[in-house]
Design goal:
Layout (H helix, E strand, L loop, with lengths): L1 H8 L10 H25 L4 H9 L1 H14 L15 H11 L18
Helix pairs in contact: 1-2, 2-3, 2-4
Length: 116
């Protein structure tokens, strides 16, 4: 939960680096929240009101942590646009997100693993 809150506190921080753990824990908690909100929306008969509002609320934090994750692997944040290529782009982006951090400092900042 602390990783999720850390990303939300840095919701427009597009500079710096995000570790794999920070990124994937945010994705996990985000997915759980979306599933719960989807079920609640369907039960109340208002689908997709809560789901849509939450998705809109976490749009910027999601983009920011994704770009910081790309920075951690030594890639520019512009690589996020590769997801616009149907199917193949999403697979390539997932591979980038799963790639380990550069062990030393890079042009985007210090290694986030060193701060644990």
């Amino acid at each position: 939960m602390k990783w999720y809150l850390k990303v939300l506190k840095n919701y427009v921080g597009f500079s710096g680096r995000a570790s794999r753990k920070e990124y994937w824990m945010f994705v996990l908690f985000n997915a759980i929240a979306l599933i719960i909100l989807s079920v609640v929306d369907k039960a109340l008969g208002i689908y997709p009101v809560l789901y849509g509002l939450y998705s809109l609320a976490v749009l910027l934090p999601s983009l920011a942590v994704s770009i910081r994750r790309l920075h951690d692997t030594g890639k520019s944040g512009a690589w996020i646009l590769i997801a616009l290529i149907p199917f193949v782009g999403a697979i390539i982006l997932i591979v980038f997100m799963c790639t380990d951090s550069q062990s030393n400092d890079n042009q985007y900042g210090t290694n986030p693993k060193a701060t644990y």
